[in-house]
Structure formats: structure tokens, C-alpha cells
Amino acid sequence: MNFHVMTLFPELIQGAASQSILGRAENKGIISVEAVNIRDYSTDMKHHHVDDYPYGGGAGMLMQAEPIYRCYEDLTEKIGHRARVVYLTPQGRVFDQQMAREFAEEEDLVFLCGHYEGVDERVIEMIVTDCVSIGDYVLTGGELPSLVMIDAISRMVPGVLSGDSAEIESFHDNLLEYPQYTRPEEFMGRKVPEILLSGHHANIEKWRREKRIERTLEVRPDLLCKANLSKNDLKYLRKLKEEKKKEEENNE
Ligand code: ADE
Is the CB of 54 under 6 A from ligand 1? Predict the structure, then answer.
């Protein structure tokens, strides 16, 4: 899968993407991350400006349509077809695991990173296929959000992760992950739960499932109605809720 990032800060993208799991996947040729500098497409030969004041007034500067459009046309010619173009903005659809899975089906994906107060709306209308937000907060630019998306999407590309770790983790079935422990058996007086040392696989699986349900109820109860819960899961959930209610009554 090939990621193409249109940005004013190519080093930021290239630096982050060359490390760790993404870097390894790139070395293995499973993914590629290419950052293209929008400034190279400025029509201002002297200062290479790519921004200007907003019509109608208001704070800050906007990225101009033309350098972005020229950058996109050049990129499209190199890619050889019109790939999906993601514009990172708090005004977009909120990114989630389902969206990551869907984007992972693409062969090429283009990102447009905004800066300053945003981007001239006309170029968004002309080239962008997907407006995406990574959450309800405002960042200074689209580079970090595009890296977040590249990371989450890459994990879904076959061969990037070892084994089936992409599948067993949180969110593929709308339950949070169970707690995990590694050596030593005791750390500053805290012991690894006995059951994990028992070697009894069925009991361990049951314990892990229950921990996932407990955590989700505690931290993200909104996910539970989307989770695929068995009869036993529901029974356990009812038990947890009753315990919680009793505890609250005792605290009153
Ligand atoms: N640009 C600035 N803030 C953003 C956000 N929350 N998501 C995506 N792009 C952004």
C-alpha cells in the first residue's frame, strides 16, 4: 500500500514513518510513505508563499488552492490513477477502526495536510474525497492526524504485523483488551494474577474475556451495545452491574 502525503513539513512525515513497525514494513516493501512538499508547487517564485489572507476578513492565513492543486495533479500523474484523497480536519468524519479497515483496501491513498487556519474551500471541493477528523480537539496541522491514520491503516495491511495481532486487539469486536503481564512474577509487591500461571487454557480464556467485559463497562460502556456478547458474557455483565449497583447503594 502506498501513502502519499501532501504537506508543508515533509520531514515530520518521513521521520515518523521511517521508525519502528512502519519503518520495517517500508523496508520490506509492504508499504511506502512518500511526503510531497506543497511549497515546491508555489506560484510565488521569490518567497515561495503558499498562504494568503481570507476573503471577508478573520483571523490567520489560509492555504491557497493553486499550489495544492498543482501538487495533486503532479502526484496523480505519478500514481497513474485518481486515488482517494483524505483531508485532515476537525470538520471531518471521526476516524475509527472500521474506517482504518476500509482504507486498508486501497492501493494508494493521498493525504492533504492543512496548516494555518485551513485551506481554500475550492480545492477541497475539487480534489478531496474524504474529510476525516481524528477526534474532537484542534491540532496545529494535519501532519500528526495523517500519521495517526497511516499507522492505524498500515496495521491492517497483511504482513505489517506478525501473526494475527491485528485481529485480537481491542475494537475489532468492540471490547477493550484484557490486561497483560510479563516477567517477573512479582514487581514491587504486585503479583501476576495466579490464573495466568496455572497453564489452564480454558480458565485463562474465560478470565481474559471477563476482564475485557469489566474494562469496557468501566471505561467505554458505549461500546457494549455494539459488542457481540454471548449468553455467558451477558450473564457476567449482569453480575457486574448488580455488584456496581450494590456498591453504589453502600456508598450512599
Ligand atoms: N487538523 C486539526 N485538528 C485536527 C483533528 N482533530 N483531526 C484531523 N485533522 C485536524
Answer: no
